[in-house]
Protein 1
Amino acid sequence: MTVAKEFEKSNQKYVDQFAKGDLALPPSRKVAVVICMDARIDPAKALGLEEGDAHVIRNAGGRATDALRSVIISQRLLGTREIVVIHHTDCGMLTFTDESLRKQLVSEADENVDHFAFLPFNDLEKSVVDDVKFFKKNSLVLDVPVSGYVYDVKTGAINKVI
Ligand SMILES: [Zn+2]
């Protein structure tokens, strides 16, 4: 059985108790969270979010440049007025370089992806600061509060960096 099939089963249970069909499209707490896709992080549980509260924009590493398209839409079309960036300990982005992944893709897929930035990092706190600064400096992003945290996968705690 595929995982997708399992999802169909699980979703039926969710549907049976679902009572939030009347939520507004714009997030009620007017916040966009940019956070890594890491499977160990459940942003809703970790941050106290309910359906309708926030835009949670996930990608590998929780990188700002990758999230920019979504942040622009979130702010300009759906009214969010705060950004929270969350990277985390033991992130997969700490384990490779652009060069190593490019080499791997040449050998496995016979594709040259030298133009492609995978945005790995080797300094966790610096990557948070860099991404907060990216949003603060980008002229397409509104002048709103932007904060940055590191989520600890061992304790579940978010620790403020900037
Ligand atoms: Zn990660």
Protein 2
Amino acid sequence: MKKYDQLLESNKAWAKAQAEADPTFFEKMAAGQSPEFLWIGCADSRAPADKITQTDPGSIFVHRNVANLVVHTDMNMLAVLQYAVEHLHVKHIMVVGHYGCGGVKAAMSNAELGLINKWVRNIKDVYVDHKKELEAITNEDDRFDRLVELNVVQQVKNLAETSIVQKAWKKGDYPHLHGWVLELKTGTIKKIYEIEAGELDEIDPIYRFDI
Ligand SMILES: [Zn+2]
């Protein structure tokens, strides 16, 4: 059997097991979704949102890209964000980074990587913003870990700086924004930053819109 056929076989077995455990499971799935969470994570194969949080399909709306970035010109991310906030009315958005992130590692190097450089340039900017703190860390692994954390914090702020999130805050009490980091060595997630809905103090006034 080809390796990819194994995926299809596993899928069949999963669908059968789900239907046996709950005969209405797929009927409910097909009827629609109302997830409470939007997860913006890294595309890394070791950081799957539902597996590591033991959640069922339907629980988390997911967007993943290299190094879990929230880039204001990224139409893909913005479309996901707008749909999640304005139509699904998610209560929480979590940006989830992970230690050992290849995207963050690439940003710390001077390697010429083509298109990847354009993307991780956003993380280089985070590095420069926190250069003093980062370069005071003599151990390279510790510096790498800290940049992973600072990158997550910046991406959470980037969310708060969107008109999509600010419009939602004006209307109500959601979404709350969270910055988490997954530790691959233990499989556990650490909370490192959060912005409660409406907390505009967390972002510079220049990013606040007259909404
Ligand atoms: Zn990564």
